[in-house]
Amino acid sequence: MATPLEMPKLGNTVEDCLLARWNKRVGDTVAEGELVAEIETDKATFELTSPVGGTLLATFFQAGDLVPVFTNICVVGAPGESVAPFQPQASSTPGTERPSPEPPASRELAPPPRSRGEEAAVPHQSVPPAAPSSGVAPLSPPQGFYSPRAKRFAAGHGFRPEHVAGSGPQGRVLEEDLKRLYYASPRPTPLARHLIESGFELCGEAGGRLRASDLGPPPEKMSHIRERVARRLRESLAVTAQYTMNASADATGLLALRAKIKARGASPGLPDINLNEMVMFCVVKALAVMPEVNVGFVDGKIYRHTGVNIGFACDTPRGLLVPVIKQAGELSLADLAVRIKALSRQALDGAISPDDLAGGTFTVSNLGVYGIESFSPILNPPQVAILGVNSIELKAVRRDGAVVFVEHIGLSLTCDHQVIDGAPGARFLKICREQIENVEALAGLEI
Fold first, then answer.
1. Same domain? 149 vs 209
2. Per the domain annotation, does 97 fall within a domain?
3. Tens of pLDDT along 362-383?
């Protein structure tokens, strides 16, 4: 019996997913549990497997389509079975691939504007660099709008630009208009034309003769996750008033506790807790002391959170993800470390739930492992603060009238000035420093 596969709902906040790639083609044999397609939310990639064995009879979407959850995307069954009952509504299936012999309808109402490299591939055709793109191919001026001399120049040079602004009466195109555009247009050499045909594109601006040195390989397309991250970061800088303060905390206690844990070794009651997990534990305690930092800011309103949902930046092969530990204030240091490690593995494997990437109230970003001494972390709205953790460096301090060198860990706090002024931000950074310097007592571990 034919069985549809639908786009799963991968979290309470997920309404649609990107169909990233088909791993099977129509007509391929599919085993039960075999990978059929890869799908993406805005934060993670997941695998879609078949619940039954059979033949892939039809696919209703193409790779790159954004598909609502609970929508059928394909059908697996026996050859010859009808798939018509499982087809989604036409309004929700742009660019579908149907099993009928008719070709799928095009998703484009008009041809897209050609890239600069593609324009260069067409001899003596160019669009001025400053011309705005409307998404619809412009039309050439009617022959009647060319002056006689302009017609001769166009015919002699085989030059009919897609659009040109005429400087003559009523917008008529004059010979000077065509000459100016012709000599400013890139005209590829034979080698450049060959590279363009093989996929190379124009790098920057070019006028006159277009040479191979002006071309470069096609740009890499950003992943769906990377596009979402880029958009969120741009929006963050656009809607917040960000400022960053830097300080450092005595890392003696951190390093001493870490050494004790390593010496004892991991056990069921005491996992291998690293420095970043200790710092995050201290930050959670600092937020309990100063809850006015643990808030959200949306449309001019401040929302105070009842618990600390602490997120941490995680570098993955798919891009930056921020897993979130819910109600972190209720966890011991050991429990927090276990949770951080579990979410980190899931994020790296691409198996993390979207629900574990949402709902954060404060974020920690650690670049100290890369030797970074100071940086400006970017806010993750609606959060109003984020703490950057830097490397541990020797710092000269005065003690008992003498100068000694003590290892300090760098801290970079970014706040939204719309909600947190400089003095409250500095107080919170001071509290974080105090918690870190007293981590041994704060942790309460018996080692």
1. yes
2. no
3. 999 999 999 999 999 999 999 9
> Which residue is listed with tokens 């993670």?
44
Structure tokens of 232? 């969120």
Residue 291 backbone class (left: φ over 0; alpha: ψ -120 to 50; beta: rest)? alpha
Residues 200-258 have pLDDT tens digits of 776 655 555 676 767 777 777 777 777 778 888 899 999 999 999 999 999 999 999 99
Q: Are residues 211 and 82 in the same domain?
A: no
Spatial separation of the C-alpha atoms in residues 383 and 293, rounded to whole Å: 9
Q: Tens digits of per-residue pLDDT, 157-206?
A: 777 777 788 888 878 888 888 888 776 666 677 777 777 777 777 665 55
Whether residue 254 sits in one domain with residue 277: yes
Residues 308/327, Cβ–Cβ less than 8 Å:
yes
Element (H, E) at 28: none
- pLDDT higher than 70, residue 92: no
392 lies in which domain range? 225-443
Is there a single domain that holds both residue 78 and residue 135?
no
Residues 240 and 199 in one domain: no
Which of 205, 115, 196, 151 has its CA nearest to residue 164? 151
Contact 414, 244 (CB under 8 A): yes
Long-range contacts of 78-82 (CB under 8 A, 24+ apart): 78/1, 78/2, 78/54, 79/55, 81/1, 81/2, 81/57, 82/2
Q: Is the Cα dihedral 269, 275, 280, 282 positive or negative?
A: positive
Residue 9 confidence class, pLDDT cut points 50, 70, 90 = confident
Is residue 98 domain-resident? Answer: no
Domain identity same for 285 and 138:
no
**Element housing 234 (H / E):** helix 224-239
In angstroms, the first-to-last Cα distance of the chain is 61
* Torsions phi, psi for 168 (to 5 deg): -80, 180
Number of domains in the chain: 3
| CATH code, domain carrying 363 | 3.30.559.10
What are the structure tokens assigned to 221, written together? Answer: 């397309």
Of the candidates 55, 76, 72, the residue with the CA atom closest to the CA atom of residue 8: 72
In this prediction, residue 16 carries a pLDDT of 84
Q: Which amino acid is at 249?
A: A
189 and 325 in a single domain? The answer is no
Measured at the alpha carbon of residue 36, what is the angle toward residues 31 and 37, in degrees to the nearest 5? 170
Residues 32 and 150 in one domain: no
**Cα separation of 247 and 411, whole Å?**
5
Q: Which of 166, 191, 216 is a domain's end point?
A: 216
Please name the residue ranges forming H helices in 84-223.
Answer: 116-121, 148-157, 175-184, 190-197
